[in-house]
Amino acid sequence: MPEPITLAAISLAGIPVVASFLLDRVGHLLDRRHEDRNFPVVREPSPEQRDELAELQGTLSGVVARPADEVRDDADALAAMDRARTLLEHLHDRQIDFAGERRAPSKYRIRAVVEVDKLRDGAVGVRLGEVRSSASIDAQVKGKSAGGPVVGVQIDSLE
């Protein structure tokens, strides 16, 4: 599960606004009747991404209905918000920041998806020697069974 540290740094009053924004953007992506010229979709979501967005839409609907202080202490809710943002950033090809966050601008984007039925040994979605701290990395490793550890991202050195 990602460590949604930056979302946890948002003020208590800002959490409902962020959750509502993410829910609105996910809904817009899933049910586009008109194009948003201010926030255009650069990449069409894959069928898997559409499924994940639909699941996140349900999760975010529940998050929006909860008190902000409860959401702020819920790692799963923050992780869902973070994942929704990551998908939106990928599909819109732009970084989405909220007031109160201190995220470095992302200059480098890496996305990896590994899907296998059965792994004899372990697997690594993305293995990098040296990475700049301004990189945005999104890795998914999906498998039904594995004979070893499964790692989304392995970084030897962070610059």
The Rg value, from CA coordinates, equals: 17 Å
Main sheet record = 2 strands, parallel
Number of strands: 4
Strand composition percent: 25-35%
Spatially, the strands of the biggest sheet line up as 1-3
Helix content: 25-40%
Output the helix-strand order. Answer: HHHHHEEEE
Structural class per helix/strand content?
alpha/beta
User: What is the residue-averaged pLDDT?
Assistant: 79
Shape: globular
Per DSSP, the total helix count is: 5
User: What is the terminal separation in angstroms?
Assistant: 23 Å
Which consecutive residue ranges, at least 5 long each, have pLDDT under 50? 1-5
Description:
This protein has 159 residues and is α/β, with parallel strands linked by helices. It has five helices and four strands. It has a two-stranded parallel sheet. Helix 2 crosses helix 5. The longest helix is centred in the middle third of the chain and has 18 residues.
Strands, helices and their partners?
Elements lengths: L4 H4 L5 H17 L16 H18 L3 H5 L2 H18 L15 E12 L3 E9 L3 E12 L3 E9 L1
Parallel strand pairs: 1-3, 2-4
Helix pairs in contact: 2-3, 2-5, 3-5
List keywords for this structure.
single chain; 159 residues; alpha/beta; two-stranded parallel sheet; two-stranded parallel ribbon; 5 helices; globular; disordered N terminus
What's the short version?
The strands form 2 sheets. The protein has a two-stranded parallel sheet. The protein has a two-stranded parallel sheet with strand order 2-4.
